[in-house]
Amino acid sequence: MQDKEYIAVLVQSLEKKNEILDKIMAKNKEQKILFMDESSDPDRLEENMQEKSSLVDQLNELDEGFQQIYNRVKSVLQEDKESYKEEIRRMQKLITDITDKSATVQAQEQRNRDLAVKKFSSVKKGIRKARASNRVASQYYKSMANLNVIDSQFMDKKN
Q1: CA separation for the pair 140, 142 (Å, rounded)
Q2: pTM for the complete prediction?
Q3: Minimal CA–CA distance to 46: which of 59, 60, 30?
Q4: CA 93 → CA 41, 66, 80, 97, 140, distances in Å?
């Protein structure tokens, strides 16, 4: 591969990373809605998290590939800045966009984490309340069942 092709791959990699960050931000918005909705489907939340995990894996792969290619053309970019002025400017713009989006994703993740803690806390309270209700109901039914039992010492054994 020639240097121009490597640099084009770097630009494509940054563009792809930018697109993936957009998808992650959309998944985070969806996740926020799922955390805030009391009747949301837990399976949908799990699906959302798996999709987001897949996107993060793609980002990591892009980062690794970008770094490998950048290491190959780093000296060329530094020595011949003028020839690659447009590509460098494009990459700088993309890196700025990626940095901004990364900060947004981090903020979204923190907010969603806080919402998750609240949601799971309320779910735990609901489970505790349900267990307590079941325990009270069970005790009630046991005590009611014992009311119908008459001790043998009070029964008249005469025929």
Answers
A1: 5
A2: 0.74
A3: 30
A4: 39, 16, 19, 6, 69
